[in-house]
Amino acid sequence: MAFGDGPLPEHFAVVDAASGKEVFRGVPKPLPGEHWGRFQNHAELDFTALRSPGRFRVAMGGFSSHPFVIAADAFATLPDACLEFMRQQRCGNNPWLGTNCHQLDGRTAYGPVPAGTPIDARGGWHDAGDLLKYLLTSGNATAQMLLAWQLTNSASGDRVDALGNPRTNGIPDILDEARWGLDWMLKLHPAPDQLYHQVADDRDHIGFRLPQNETADYGWGKGGPRVVYAADGQAQGLSQFKSASTGLANLAGRHAAALALAWQVWQNDFHDYSTNEPTMDGTASALLLWSLCNYAR
After folding, report:
1. How far apart, in whole angstroms, are the C-alpha atoms of residue 32 and residue 136?
2. Domains of the chain, start order
3. Tens of pLDDT, residue by residue, the chain (297 residues)
4. Is 37 helix (H, G, I), strand (E, B) or coil?
5. What is the DSSP track for 122-148?
6. Which of 3, 28, 262, 280 has the fewest CB atoms within 10 Å, i.e. is most exposed?
7. How far apart, in whole angstroms, are the C-alpha atoms of residue 180 and residue 272?
8. How far apart are CA 115 and CA 13, in angstroms?
9. Are 205 and 174 contacting, i.e. CB atoms less than 8 angstroms apart?
10. Distances, alpha carbon 82 to alpha carbons 142, 152, 214, 240, 258, in Å
11. What is the largest CA-CA distance in the chain?
12. Separation between Cα atoms, residue 82 and residue 154, nearest integer Å
């Protein structure tokens, strides 16, 4: 895409990133009626016909793009880069930081058990720059990784073990990371009448800090247990920051979808799922099977 606040040039070129030699020339396709900010002129630059592998830039009107690659394996490094980010976001045991964090997660809120009941909600991924954890986003990330594996069976290599340490373990890294998410999701469904969906809340937003240096206080001391919200179909949270939830179907559906994909991936060696993964045990394996049956009903 090209855009500008004045008329766009009549031609564009693709040039070799190193030598600047032109390897393709094309005509921009104007996109009338489009605008973004102060830019009122937009065009589509189609160089599909360029099939030669190499490293190139798009040049137009005295400007050029960042370098890009044309190759049969142009996206080969992207899965590993994405998985590295997921490992960076791991909660509980973080291989990127080489330390543990949030070992006291957490204490319940809402749901059928008394508020403040201890629950093991360690694991999963920090949601963003803050340190909250959500079933909705984590369930989707887990399902996307499992789906990517199903579609390609080669979505990543084997560079790290199940804990994210830099050594191979005979399991593709994308499945190691998906199982990290699945382990946490299993903890969020500890009983037939309990489904938890969020760890921590806006009390987290007290400034940037490393996960292992937690200082947020949820009523059990600074750096202590964090609240774990049970899904009950009602608005939850603090004052004006309450959610607008009115049901359970989306949360339960995301949970069940990820578990169903897990069954499809590991159905032929499900025993290995529970014994080869350091954070999974036979109880969790049985719970996963039970969860699939329960949601199917």
Report:
1. 38
2. 2-70 (2.60.40.10), 78-296 (1.50.10.10)
3. 999 988 999 999 999 999 999 999 999 999 988 888 899 999 999 999 999 999 999 999 999 999 999 999 888 888 899 999 999 999 999 999 999 999 999 999 999 999 999 999 999 999 988 999 999 999 999 999 999 999 987 767 899 999 999 999 999 999 999 999 999 999 999 999 999 999 999 999 999 999 999 999 999 999 999 999 999 988 888 777 777 777 788 899 999 999 999 999 988 775 555 444 433 343 344 444 444 444 434
4. coil
5. --SB--SSS--EEHHHHHHHHHHHHHH
6. 3
7. 15
8. 64
9. no
10. 13, 16, 25, 34, 19
11. 71
12. 14
Tokens of 103: 């070992």
Q: How many residues does the chain have?
A: 297
